[in-house]
Specification:
Order of helices and strands of chain A: HHEEEEEHEEHEHEEEHEHEEHEHEEH
Largest sheet of chain B: 11 strands, mixed
Structural class of chain B: alpha+beta
Shape of chain B: globular
Number of strands of chain A: 17
Helix content of chain B: 25-40%
Mean pLDDT of chain B: 95
Low-confidence stretches of chain B: none
Number of strands of chain B: 19
Number of helices of chain A: 10
Radius of gyration of chain A: 20 Å
Structural class of chain A: alpha+beta
Radius of gyration of chain B: 21 Å
Oligomer: heterodimer
Strand content of chain A: 25-35%
Low-confidence stretches of chain A: none
Amino acid sequence: MKELIKKLTETFGPSGREDEIRNVILEEIKDHVDGYKVDKVGNILAWKGQGEKKILLDAHMDEIGVVVTNIDENGFLRIEPVGGVSPYTIFKKRIKFEKTAGVVGMEGETTDEIEKNLSKLSFDKLYVDIGAKNREEAEKIVPIGSFGVYDSYFMEVGGRYVSKAMDDRIGCAVIIEVLERVKSPNVTIFASFSVQEEVGLVGASVVAYDVMPDEAIAVDVTDSADTPKAIKRHPMVLGKGPALKVMDKASISDRNILERLINTAEKRGIPYQMEVLIFGGTNAAVLQRTRYGIPSATVSIPTRYLHTPSEMVEPSDIDGTVELLVAYLEGG
Amino acid sequence: MYLRELSEIPGVSGDEDKVRDFIREKIESKLDDVVVDRMGNLIGIKKGRKSERKLLMLAHMDEVGLMVTKINDDGTLSFAPVGGVDPRVLPGKRVKVGEDKLGVIGYKAIHLQKSDEVKKPPSYENLRIYLGFSSKKEAEKEVEIGSYVSFLTKYSEENGKATGKAFDDRGGCSILMDVIDLNERYDFDVYFAFVVQEEVGLRGSAILMEQLHPDVALVLETTTAGDNPEIPEYQWATHLGDGPVITFAHRGYVANKRVFQILIETAVRNGIPFQMKRRTAGGTDAGRLARRGRGVPAGVVSIPARYIHSPLSVMDLMDYKNTFKLIKKVLEEGKIMEEVSG
């Protein structure tokens, strides 16, 4: 599992540029499913089992990133965020493009201006330095419209995993593992690895159109509020198992699914925690509203430092999530 | 090119009838079928020789404008924007209220404003439309609450530039009509959709996918230039005269990679100048299409224009011509249907 998580998180795949990560995932699942397809917008939809009831598990395969919007005459790039990237997070970090990498710097001609820019930082004040000497040189390597992601690598600290793109490659890893482990599902499992979640839940809006499963579960990350002076109203912590989402800003989990998840966890003795997130949303919000409606819920993996190059998760939470979902699919 | 006629027709979001009638009359004889759907989108169909795959081409008919919200005791009208209209562009402008009433948007004269008032932008609360009525009773006979208000700019051309209202997105509509005028039949079906209510939240396009299930979609827009001299060049969105604008990503949607690449390759191959949309703010119907039905790989091509969402925008007619050229080539070459999966 650790190797899989390392591979998935280190693969390039910002929203709209999921080709590489899609190929990695297809390679991982192809021997463990009965069939799969890639739909019109680039989502992977795989299936396994023969049961009458259809359950969809979804994780998004895209990650947040940036896109090059302009290049100046000296070869410095201007960027805008793709999904929720804070200018404060990306300032002074490295960005990886498909063919090169760059450093993010900030404008400031006087100390006053530097202070002002720092206190109200925006992407308009940032640039990326790829070492190019001029516009022509830069344009050859990263033409306007090139996408980039945090330049970050997977590491293990104190038994915990840290990397970019845990959001939501960790969900992808969980579903890949579930597909592999589930041997006798009572249901037909559909697994979607969807595109463009970070810019507005695009892929998941259409992925279930033809299947119309009886229920859908989004597997995604959530905030973990167990760091110094973290969000007081959040109960989620690392190490207490999968977080069963009751509500976030975009959806309220289907009560029935939620209760059956709780029952499954109780019966199997799998640690779990309840989640209410006061911001954010998952693909459950659009799965729920597909055509005539799909009862939907979210199972989350608590994660520290979300939307940074160093998102931290706890392996036991990941194992617990896999265990819970396998048990759920095998009938509780 | 129908930009002149289209520009002068009033058609604020939800009130697109006249635009639709004009377009319908011009295109009907050149297409295999023309229908109007339940929301008022006009859809023209050109069957293909093979007809196995469907391309949807879309432009929106509506423009931003205003609506009467209240008739005041003194016979003046209070109003609200329909779509994104900056109140700073309104004072002193002539408008049409309802079918045929002419009015002026009034604001406290500079002589009566205190020095700090002059510096503050006007708000919708203190702008009124004056029609020359002296009482509420008089005004009520001629206008209604809910009456649409549109700008009254005449189209003109000067030095290769066109000025007029509503180029966003009558420019796109006009390009689609030019394509229809070619009267070409391609291998694939082409659906030409002239949609309603884009400016108030991509509403008309929301019901297209269920009706048409296209394989690929191309949105034709008129987009903001943002090449003002006070903005450094590296912050411009687009620049007048640099050719059709190709979008890689905008609010809520990253344009389909292959569609994006084919647009660029087609321009390069045919020596057509083009530029990227270099800001990602703002959205188009492409984002809506990709999220509805089974989804669709979508791309966006726009004509750049200055001062859009105001009573007067400016377009370089070379950009119009090159946008048309690009679209024509994309259709002729057909790669967009052969090489985009789905």
